[in-house]
Amino acid sequence: MKKENLPTKICPICKKDFSWRKKWSRDWENVIYCSERCRRSKNELKK
């Protein structure tokens, strides 16, 4: 699959687009954040 044809999502923390990765292949529906850093910072937004 070409990179331009990969599915994308928008990270709710940094507002950047991120593309599908092979390591997310089984769980793409549940992937929310583009990185571990954004996932960890989700609690900082609630404060």
List the helices and strands and how they pair.
Elements: E1 8-10, E2 17-19, H1 36-40, H2 42-46
Task: Characterise the protein shown here.
This protein has 47 residues and is of the alpha+beta class. 21% of the residues lie in helices and 13% in strands. It has helices at 36-40, 42-46, and strands at residues 8-10, 17-19. The protein has a two-stranded antiparallel ribbon with strand order 1-2.
Number of helices: 2
Gyration radius from CA atoms, angstroms: 12 Å
State the major sheet.
Answer: 2 strands, antiparallel
Q: Give the topology string: H per helix, E per strand.
A: EEHH
Strand arrangement, largest sheet?
A: 1-2
User: Approximately how much helix is present in the residues?
Assistant: 10-25%
Low-confidence stretches: none
Give the terminus-to-terminus CA distance.
41 Å
How many β strands by DSSP?
A: 2
**Mean of residue pLDDT values:** 87
Judging from the principal axes of the Cα atoms, what is the shape? elongated
